[in-house]
Amino acid sequence: MQALEAIRKSIGTADDLQSVVKTMKGVAAANIRQFERAVESLADYARTVELGLQVLLAAQPDLAQPAPQDENGTLGAVIFGSDQGLCGRFNVQIAEHAAAEVREQAGGKDPRLLLVGTRIAPLLDAEGLCVDEQVPPATSLAQIGPLVRDVLMRIEGWRAAGAVDRVILLHNESLGGALYRPRTQRLLPVDTEWLERLRGREWPSRCLPIVTLEWGDLFSSLMREHFWVSLFRASAESLASENASRLASMQAAERNIEQRLKKLNMHYRLSRQHAITEELLDIISGFEALAAEGQ
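^ thats the sequence. predicted structure below, dont judge the formating
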């Protein structure tokens, strides 16, 4: 009976763990959709910013040309990881991707690395990369805005100090469901080909807006909004990918628990049947012994 009680406790523990895993699956699935909707909504705002830039480029295209990119300049990289566990290979995958991209683009110079999240730091250290700054990642939509402002201020500090000439963003992006992949995005300097495409794009209506404010200030403001959108999207996509990886991990854990429960229940039934059989045999043996004494 002690063995049956131990098996029964194991089954109860597995049932409790299964309930926790199912809850975490539901939370991860809800978070994925929440962050994906944020990215979808951000696309409308990004289009508004692009329309504003399109008007300015059409008005004074010569002033919109950024400084040529220094391919040998110092690289700055913003890498989005995680501070939370139970997310499978999320941090490993982005760390491997970041290490390869930074080595390829650094050009032999020591890069400046800003890490969003702490769990990826040891992985980058193992790859021989030194993290200069770390900030905690956002865990909700409300925290993404303050995080973006903090990252922008740190990048501006790099630029003001002449520490970097180029800045890239490295993060995972969700592909829907439990799928995601790493992505590299150039933040600075501004992509001239993208500006040329904006300038050559057809205006969606017959009336072209008139620029009445000072051109340079308006252009700078719109570019700041473009940078804000890029960082916000990177953070939201990273969070969606983190939850996608967590969902995949919880699905695998749920399958393992179900298999464990099947084995435990089968073992319990066999052990219980064996115990009942032994008790019946004891009763029969006792009865036969008593019957033999009565004769």
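The chain has two domains: 2-26+253-294, 27-249.
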